[in-house]
Amino acid sequence: MATYTRDEIIKRARDLAKMISQTEEVDFFKRAEAQINYNTKVQEMIGKIKNLQKNAVNYQHYGKHEALKKVEAQIDQLQEELDAIPVVQDFKTSQVDVNDLLQLVANTISNTVTNEIIESTGGNVLRGETGSKVNGAGSGSSCGDGCGCH
């Protein structure tokens, strides 16, 4: 069995990150983001939403509840209009796709490490038990029955 250092693992993680950054999902994300950044209508709407959000914070701070409700309604309407724009929909879809890929990689690493630990200790992967659990280590407790320590 090979033993790796933390630095070697980090290097490989960086290599994996570079691979991920060169996937179709990330490429589509970059293109969708560029379309949003160059779309003046989208940028204007985002600017309006940000200004209204600042107003909402101020209204909330000063207890102006009616003004806050009106501003929140304006924000919701603008957000709905923004979300209906195809380039915004594409961008949000691309964000989800990239996040899904990252989650898949993280889960794969986590599950593989867990399974490797179980297998290397002679455990049972299907039950999720390491070899020491399968072989009954600790079952001969000396504290007597019913103490709850095993």
UniProtKB/TrEMBL annotation:
Pfam families: Com_YlbF. InterPro entries: Bact_com_dev_regulator, Biofilm_formation_YmcA, Com_YlbF, YheA/YmcA-like_dom_sf. This is Master regulator for biofilm formation.
